[in-house]
Design a protein that fits this description.
By secondary structure, the protein is mostly beta strands. It contains two helices and 34 strands. The chain folds into two domains: about 80 residues, Immunoglobulin-like, CATH 2.60.40; about 325 residues, Neuraminidase. The protein starts with a helix and ends with a strand.
């Protein structure tokens, strides 16, 4: 009986203690009142870079951080906590130039009048390569590379195609495993069955696909479940479409996986754009655009129906030369389906709004997950970025100055960068072609 009374007393005490603890934890908590406006007063600091702390002052925030969204332009910031009148947030990566800060709670939102001054911090390092152009497998320190085009899978494997230095091939580079290894290599033109240029990866399946430049129906896939052994695939065009490709300028330098509809897209030098089913290989021409050699192709993951293409100095009509084009895959033959987005007048350099920007032989292009495009500006020896809000900036290298130097965005030097790839974290890998090295650009 005595034990019963002790147990009852202990249970009552515990219930009382937990109730007091719960009540104490609610002291000072504030709820957002949806019937009253969000009040914004000031924020600090006024400038900074990615991962910096920012304090947003105002009122009617509520203290439940999970219900608060903060945006720098259109890029969402991480919200750490809120006291009700002060939000503690983290500046996001690459929000665009002079971002405005917006606070969203439920159906309500408010924007600070003053803008934030965002400063990107960048660092360039060398991943592999020693300046020698003959390909050689090995560790990152001992390997030799002469890559032109790059692509990444979701596991951090970097794929490189090359066609110079005496051999042709596709290689896998893995920083964590400290390895550079060939997936396919040919030492002579007689042995060469794959003439690879642009590469693409389906980041869900991990399958790597490479275009075969001069045979219109042929492309190759490398499946990680088969240890990336190359498999030849033949696109199945109708007889009429196939004949139109064969007798035209059939060279196809790129193939790109499109998550919008699950098809592969390739473009021939005569301007035809074809889509290919990745399983049945059924293919059809969906667009006829301008003539011209091509040096880049990519899908914008933020708008996966947009296929971007860079054309070279032989494009015809002339208004498409040395430009960045976009094709809307939702209606590829519609009015305005294919258009140039940057200013005409290549072989120059100008940052600013994309409609005013000029490049000099832009080569490979890739996007990060936020919709920022990175361009290997071959003739200007630098890496440019087209932000999701339409502003072109130089993020690494010195425009017009060729060289080799790691370091910050101003100190770093490139020599005719050709290929780019962007991983899930937003780090940019660069095939620094005339330096025969793979470089890495980390922007925060």
């Amino acid at each position: 009986m005595k034990n019963y009374y002790l147990l009852t007393f202990f249970s009552a005490f515990l219930f009382f203690a937990l109730g007091c603890s719960k009540n104490e934890s609610n002291i000072g908590q504030k709820e957002h009142d949806p019937n009253k406006p969000i009040i914004l007063s000031s924020f600090s600091p006024r400038e900074g870079g990615a991962k910096d702390k920012v304090l947003l002052d105002g009122d009617n925030f509520g203290s439940d951080a999970s219900k608060i969204e903060v945006y720098f332009n259109n890029t969402r910031a991480a919200v750490v906590s809120s006291s009700g009148n002060r939000i503690y947030a983290i500046v996001p990566r690459l929000p665009g130039e002079n971002p405005v800060i917006k606070v969203v709670i439920g159906e309500q939102s408010a924007t600070y009048e003053d803008t934030f001054t965002y400063t990107a911090q960048a660092q360039v390092t060398t991943v592999t390569g020693n300046g020698q152009t003959a390909f050689r497998e090995g560790t990152l320190a001992t390997a030799q590379v002469y890559g032109k085009y790059l692509e990444l899978d979701a596991e951090g494997n970097l794929f490189m195609s090359w066609r110079d230095g005496g051999t042709w091939g596709v290689a896998r580079i893995n920083e964590q495993q400290n390895i550079v290894t060939a997936l396919y290599e040919a030492a002579t033109t007689g042995e060469r069955v794959l003439f690879a240029n642009g590469l693409t990866v389906d980041r869900v399946t991990g399958v790597l696909t490479a275009s075969h430049e001069s045979v219109p129906e042929v492309f190759f896939s490398f499946d990680p479940r088969e240890a990336w052994n190359p498999r030849q695939r033949n696109a199945q065009f109708s007889e009429a479409e196939y004949n139109s490709i064969v007798w035209a300028d059939r060279y196809a330098n790129f193939i790109t996986f499109c998550p919008y509809d699950g098809y592969l897209y390739t473009r021939f030098r005569d301007g035809k754009v074809a889509k290919i089913h990745p399983d049945t290989y059924e293919a059809t021409i969906v667009h006829q655009g301008p003539y011209g050699s091509q040096y880049g192709q990519a899908i914008n993951p933020a708008k996966p129906w947009e296929l971007y293409i860079t054309l070279h100095s032989n494009a015809s009509p002339v208004e498409f030369r040395q430009g960045i084009m976009v094709l809307d895959l939702r209606n590829p033959n519609g009015t305005g389906g294919f258009k140039r987005i940057n200013a005409p007048g290549g072989s120059g350099f100008r940052d600013g709004p994309v409609e005013e920007a000029i490049f000099n032989l832009p080569k490979d292009i890739k996007f990060d997950n936020d919709g920022n495009m990175f361009i290997a500006d071959y003739g200007n020896h630098c890496i440019r970025m087209l932000s999701a809000d339409g502003i072109v900036t130089t993020v690494a290298g010195q425009p017009g100055v060729a060289g080799y130097r790691d370091g910050g965005p101003v100190e770093s030097l490139f020599n005719q960068p050709w290929g780019v790839a962007v991983n899930e974290q937003g780090d940019i890998y660069i095939a620094d072609w005339s330096n025969a090295r793979i470089r890495k650009l980390v922007i925060e």
